[in-house]
Here is the input.
Amino acid sequence: MKTNQKGIRFLSIVLFFMGTILGMALFGSIVLVNLEAKFFFGGIKIAEEDLKTLHCPPIITPIDRSAVTATITNNTNRTIKPLYRMNMSNNTEITRLVETTPEIAPGETMQVEWMVNPEDAIYGNLILVKVMQYNTRMTPSREATCGTLVLKIPYLSGSQVLLTGILSSLVLMRLGIILWLKSNNPLIGRSLNVRNAMLSLVFVIGSGIIASCFGIWLLGIILLAICLLLIVASINFLIPGE
Here is the structure.
């Protein structure tokens, strides 16, 4: 019976760490791609405000037809025609430049799109984007950067890869926790510390995935650092005792 419990404990740790590593790889890679985009374009802000509505697809694959998007609302009583300048990484040495001038009626909200594909990737699998919205008489200038990870995975779209990865990570971590609870009853001492460390990692990784998917890359960096520190600090508790 004791040998069986040890086996279940070991399996619980293996499953949990598999889910942890997968979750960290998912949100960590998305966060780092966005950070690379900022450095790639120099990190110097010249616009009056951040273009907070800029969004890059987190992951794309060869079968995707995806777009970088930005949303603007005309809160004035006149039609505006803001100039958007999009710089995108390219497999050549020169970035791809696209200028767009949408016409937006008073009170209208419009989404501006720029198509992306794996051929835009540099460094093997990174698409890096900077969008500048120039000011009009009624609206301030805005700018932002974002990035997309290109994975050469057949048959699945980027959103399907992301969803599969998230679900797999959560399922593995959940199974690890369930097996740990099953093999440690009652929870006292080391076994309780292990359970608490597992729940903390689930919370941090889940928050990191949400932050990265919504483009809140700065929060994602902080959560990634917390996750790494939490693993290092609690490694002794994540090794089952005798």
Remarks:
- The chain has a mean pLDDT of 86.
